[in-house]
Write a structure and sequence with these properties.
Low-confidence stretches: none
Number of helices: 16
Strand order of the largest sheet: 4-3-6-1-2-5
Structural class: alpha/beta
Number of strands: 11
Largest sheet: 6 strands, antiparallel
Distance between the termini: 14 Å
Mean pLDDT: 90
Shape: elongated
Helix content: 40-55%
Strand content: 15-25%
Length: 448
């Protein structure tokens, strides 16, 4: 995760933990397993539902956190890890509920002595207690469902379309768990500082869940369009699709991406935009590579004139850092944002000094027509292109880049390509003294 993500991720857990402990200091003085069990169930339950609420809010793709986290790709990474954290806490919550019962059944623990329960005179508390049985039963089934849905989301061997359809059930599980949390949260917590914070998160999360269930995520950023042109590059198993946009598109920066929907049953898929924005000719170009169950066969499924819904733009991979030197690295289909930037640079008059740029494109596959177009775009933008075919030139490494660009210490690096390759390059440049927090920029977008 990025530094901003790490701060948000660990800061979230730290602040909620400190707040809960400040309000429940008696956990440090419990005298038996069953008293500890009650405290730990409350603690794990509060943190789990808070994390799920934030993850649900982030699923709406809100603009404010996207900008501050460095792009939707980074925001989705935070969404993913909050989900993983919530899953771990939900499992812990369930174990604290069930393990003492198992221990009693095995004779490892004696049954607790239950004294007389205090009389409840508060009408609201009495009302909530009337739903306790339903909240416990439904919450257990929602927990089982959430575990299955999150495992489907995390196991990438499971096809994307199964993940997509199953993930649409997550808001239902979340709403059930909100009901579970409202009923079973220690009643006294509602009048502490924790109560309003938790209530606000669950209200926001519930709203987000309903927006998701009704298919309204990103509706304000959707524009109707139709496919105007298609170009197939069989050598690299890629398809270039030009979409003519209707009214409403606010424009985009080179390096951003959008969600495109050609089949409502398949839903929206993210594509990096491979074209500069021209308001007088409102079009966006997408380049897709046959890498998965959706993109494989697109050339046969799409037709010129076909209606498309485009949502966006998203992302902050926009090359704006003010440095006089840049190194671009586009691996495979990761060349797409750089194609857009080349076209933008060629179409606009320079405002002040442009950075000096070296573009490295490394690829396993070759399509002469595609490479000729890339070389032409680079010449038009006055960018030095370094083309490396794996079978001819070997692997691109940080050492090769530094040898080619001797003044690399003055440059920023912009990388788009396979995640492991990017991680290796980032670590290599960091080991050679590059301040990667400010100088190494990556596109990390993954839906899973």
């Amino acid at each position: 995760m990025s530094l901003a993500n790490l701060r948000c991720f660990w800061g979230f857990w730290g602040l909620f933990t400190l707040l809960w402990l400040a309000l429940n200091r008696d956990i440090f003085f419990v005298q038996n397993v069953f008293a500890l069990r009650q405290s730990m169930m409350q603690f794990s339950g509060v943190l789990a539902i808070a994390a799920m609420s934030v993850a649900m809010i982030l699923s709406l793709r809100p603009r404010w956190p996207e900008i501050r986290l460095g792009g939707l790709d980074k925001m989705y990474r935070l969404h993913k890890w909050l989900g993983i954290g919530a899953l771990g806490l939900a499992v812990l919550h369930w174990l604290w509920s069930e393990a003492p019962k198992w221990a009693i059944g095995l004779g490892l623990l004696g049954r607790p002595e239950r004294g007389a329960r205090p009389e409840i005179t508060d009408s609201i508390q009495q009302f909530l207690l009337g739903f306790r049985g339903a909240a416990e039963g439904l919450g257990q089934w929602a927990f089982y469902g959430m575990v299955i849905l999150l495992l489907v989301a995390l196991i990438k061997l499971i096809p994307y379309h199964i993940f997509r359809y199953s993930h649409r059930l997550m808001p239902i599980a979340y709403l059930v768990l909100v009901f579970h949390a409202v009923i079973l949260l220690d009643y006294g917590m509602w009048i502490t500082p924790l109560g309003p914070v938790l209530a606000a998160l669950m209200i926001g999360g519930s709203y987000s869940a309903l927006v998701s269930l009704f298919g309204r995520i990103g509706v304000g950023r959707r524009v109707a369009g139709e496919i105007a042109e298609m170009r197939h590059y069989p050598g690299v198993h890629s398809l270039e699709t030009v979409v003519k946009l209707g009214p409403g598109w606010a424009g985009h920066e080179a390096g951003q991406f959008a969600f495109a929907t050609t089949n409502p049953f398949e839903g929206a898929h993210p594509y990096t935009i491979a074209s500069a924005w021209n308001p007088s000719d409102p079009k966006v170009t997408f380049i897709s590579k046959e890498l998965g169950d959706h993109t494989t066969g697109l050339v046969d499924r799409l037709k010129v004139g076909q209606k498309v819904t485009v949502e966006g733009p998203y992302g902050c991979f926009t090359f704006d850092d003010g440095l006089p030197r840049q190194i671009w690295i586009g691996a495979g289909i990761g060349i797409t944002p750089f194609v857009a930037r080349l076209k933008q640079m060629a179409s606009l008059q320079p405002k002040g000094g442009r950075p000096e740029i070296d573009l490295f494109h490394t690829t396993r596959e070759v399509d002469e027509r595609a490479l000729e177009r890339l070389a032409g775009d680079a010449r038009a933008a006055n960018v030095r292109l370094h083309l490396l075919i794996d079978s001819c030139h070997g692997t691109l490494t940080g050492e090769r880049i530094r040898e080619t660009v001797p003044d690399w210490r003055e440059a920023s690096v912009w990388f788009c390509g396979p995640s492991r390759f990017g991680t290796a390059l980032q670590a290599d440049f960091a080991a050679h003294g590059m301040p990667i927090k400010d100088r190494f920029h990556r596109e990390l977008f993954e839906l899973r």
